[in-house]
Design a protein that fits this description.
Helix content is 22%, strand content 29%. It contains four helices and five strands. The protein has a five-stranded antiparallel β-sheet. Strand 2 and strand 3 form a beta hairpin.
């Protein structure tokens, strides 16, 4: 109370998005896992995408086989590598990344980290919803 409004105290939405801690919702945590090109849907995952997380592990012994299961669904991607904003919000060129940071409940973060230590993690990308105003614009272009 009584503090003047200073320009450095105000920020644009993009400025707010560059601080990972400000993107994490109450009750959630940000957790990162290492990925390669195959695990990250060919590096096509972007911040704010939703992903399912698949765990796979090769069993040992005479019945050696690979077992896989979906361990988490519709996890929100906070960052890929150090990139935390959508491509249309930045002038940065495409860059490969080696980590994906997702927003999870603490118990799900434990599940992800334990799974990554025991086997392989893969991210399966969900379809991004089309915003209504963008949809209307694209449909008017068809005419």
């Amino acid at each position: 109370q009584g503090e003047p409004v200073l320009p450095h105290r105000l920020g644009t939405e993009t400025t707010e998005q560059i601080y990972l801690s400000r993107k994490v919702r109450e009750g959630y945590r940000a957790v990162s896992v290492g990925v390669n090109l195959n695990q990250s849907a060919a590096n096509l995952i972007e911040p704010e995408d939703e992903v399912d997380i698949l765990f796979s592990k090769k069993l040992e012994g005479p019945d050696a086989k690979i077992v896989s299961q979906i361990i988490l669904q519709k996890a929100r991607v906070l960052a890929v590598g150090r990139k935390m904003v959508l491509p249309e919000d930045t002038q940065e060129p495409y860059a490969e990344y080696t980590s994906v940071t997702v927003e999870l409940k603490p118990e799900d973060a434990l599940k992800l980290v334990n799974s990554a230590e025991q086997g392989n993690i893969h991210f399966m990308l969900h379809k991004r919803p089309i915003l209504e105003d963008k949809k209307a614009i694209s449909e008017s272009d068809k005419d």
